[in-house]
Amino acid sequence: MTDAALAGPSVVAIGGGHGLAASLAAARTYAGRITAVVSVADDGGSTGRLRAAGDRPAPGDLRKCLVALAPESSPLLRAMEHRFTSGELEGHAFGNLLIAALEDSEGDLVAALDEVGRLLGTVGRVLPAATTPVELRAVVGSGAEVRGQVAVAGRSDLHLVALDPPEVAACGPAVDAIVAADQVVLGPGSLYTSVLAATAVPGIGDALRATDAQLVYVCNLRPQASETQDYALADHVTALERHGIEPDVVLFDPATIGPADGVAGSELWPAALCSAAGSAHDVDRLGAELAAVLTSR
């Protein structure tokens, strides 16, 4: 980043998948320093195969975040998302393989991500919530336990999520970034399997409760099949609070998710956030509203 960019606010975005990538792209429009803190509990697809082969933290969402922070002119950008279509590598994303290879050669996941970021020319830093393998587990409404990110994502009766091992150490630089941030953005994205999967790392949750940063929850545009089926805005906030996370501000699009009543303890910030296609957050609108939320503090 340039010195001029560093004059802006320090923003940390937490979660996983496409939702976190949207928050990072939005942060690029107003932030001076950007850090992604990414869930590493995914166990599906290419990521799941690499985890089974090497017992490593999930690389897939880390890859998506690196791509979101890379300039479009980066020669590696298209290759990062390339998926092989035949042979033993069929289904694997090249970026996942690159991260895994560098993690093995460097002996350190954070060093591997920093090196990929250097190669891509990213405008921020991508960090895992934890640097060792974890498995997501959930308690459902009946009290039964479901294990594994893919299995958890398929449930519509989720109550609590946690990680195994339960006392997994948080990534130190991720904790430092949260504590030093001006604004921390949670979401959008899968509430239980992305956002809460990241904050379930004990040190990450503790840092969120200790930081003086403004904590903003960006709610999904619509309920997600299975995971947050039939959820209204208040249900999202209640789930966060059930996990010890109390946002200062809840940013949402009243045209797509509602009703907004029933939310206590957080400032409600309605805004038109939906893209023209109607299927995702508009990055520029999201960035403008996050900047306005921070200015209003």
State the distance separating the first and last CA atoms.
25 Å
Helix and strand string, N-terminal first? Answer: HEHEHHHHHEEEHEHEHHEHEEH
Shape: globular
Helical coverage, percent range: 25-40%
Average residue pLDDT:
91
The name of the CATH superfamily reads: CofD-like domains
**Strand content range:** 15-25%
Describe the structure.
The chain has about 300 residues and is an alpha/beta fold. It has one domain (about 5-295): Rossmann fold. It is built from 13 helices and 10 strands. It has helices at about 5, 15-25, 45-55, 60-70, 75-80, 95-105, 110-120, 150-155, 170-180, 190-200, 200-210, 235-240, 285-295, and strands spanning about 10-15, 35-40, 125-130, 135-140, 145, 160-165, 185, 215-220, 250, 265-270. The strands form 2 sheets. It has a 7-stranded parallel sheet with strand order 3-2-1-7-8-9-10, with helices on both faces. Helix 2 (about 15-25) packs parallel to helix 4 (about 60-70) and helix 2 (about 15-25) packs across helix 13. It is globular. The chain starts with a helix and ends with a helix. Residues about 1-5 have low confidence and may be disordered.
Index terms:
10 strands, 3-stranded antiparallel sheet, alpha/beta, Rossmann fold, 7-stranded parallel sheet, single chain, 297 residues
Concise summary:
The protein is α/β, with parallel strands linked by helices and about 300 residues long. The chain is built from 13 helices and 10 strands.
